[in-house]
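Dear colleague,

Thank you for sharing your sequence with our group. We've completed the structure prediction you requested, and as agreed, I am returning the results in plain text so they can be pasted directly into your records. Please verify that the sequence below matches your submission; if there's any discrepancy, let me know and we will rerun it promptly.
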Amino acid sequence: MEHDGAGDGSDIFWPGYVDAVTNLVLNLLFVLTIMIIAVFMFAIALSRHTNEKPAPSAQRQTVENVESIDPTSSTNEAIKAKDQQIETLTKNLEALKQQAIVKNSATTPQKVVTAKTPIKTPENKNIMKKLLLLTILLTSTICFSQQIVLKHTAYEIHFDTVIHEPIYTHYILTKEHANNLAEAKRTVFHADSLLCKSCQAENKDYKGVSKKFDRGHYSPCDDFTWSKKTEIESMLMDNEAPQIFQFNRGTWKELENYVRTVAKEFDTDITTGGIYGTEKAGKLLIPTYYWKIIKYNGKVEAWKIPNEIPKEGDTFQNYKVEPNELLKLLTDVHTN
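Please find the predicted structure tokens below.
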């Protein structure tokens, strides 16, 4: 649903949540960005260490001083002296070559090892620890996301896995389906196979509160009796929340009947939700208010009804509100 800014409520934008796939993609992009930054930081730290070279050896080779030739010496003695000097120089050159070879063989492997295997310094260890912790944290954010969207044949549930209850549901009841509804046979509530069992309520959670509360539908079973499959799918644990039974069987039922009457004339877009307080029924949070927004034939209607015993003479129309006012309230509730 989109909001065109006209302010007449004819086109409502729901601000609360993105679906599970979008949520996963956004989280993965965020993880990838952090990982790139972390790897870049690690590479900088590694390059700093690699560039720290040991001071070159100050060894020097000394060559024996060549004795000056006495011009008064005989030719034979001069030749012998030159031969000795040449021999000495040759030995010194060989010694220098050997030392150069030894030096290269000692230093070259060290450079290769340094390039391939990072030296473990305290700085590198700290970076790796931070990178590991960051990865664990972001992975947990993805795996344990609080709000998810569960899409079924005829409707979708926006569900909170922490409180184990729905936030809102959405579907379109077409004119064709509304005019082909059968009497509901109402199978028992059962777990949603799209959701882990530990993330949703159980039948036993409602046993201790049944004297005061009904297991109220967000998307009513009576809207889905146009097929057996959709009727069964409406009886899911994640499509219910505690409702004061007088409210469920009175004011709220009147509103649901009114919506079906509208849908028999026009295809009707229906969004239903709850505003949770802090009061609980056993383990379950109790919605303080239930709300509903319908769109049909270019019109929008909205209601916000307290989850309490109806007052004498109450009708659902007493709780009709401006769609944009309800939208603003829901935006504030789900962003604070």
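Summary note from our side: Strands lie at 147-151, 155-160, 165-173, 213-217, 240-244, 268-281, 284-296, 299-306, 320-321.

Kind regards,
the structure core
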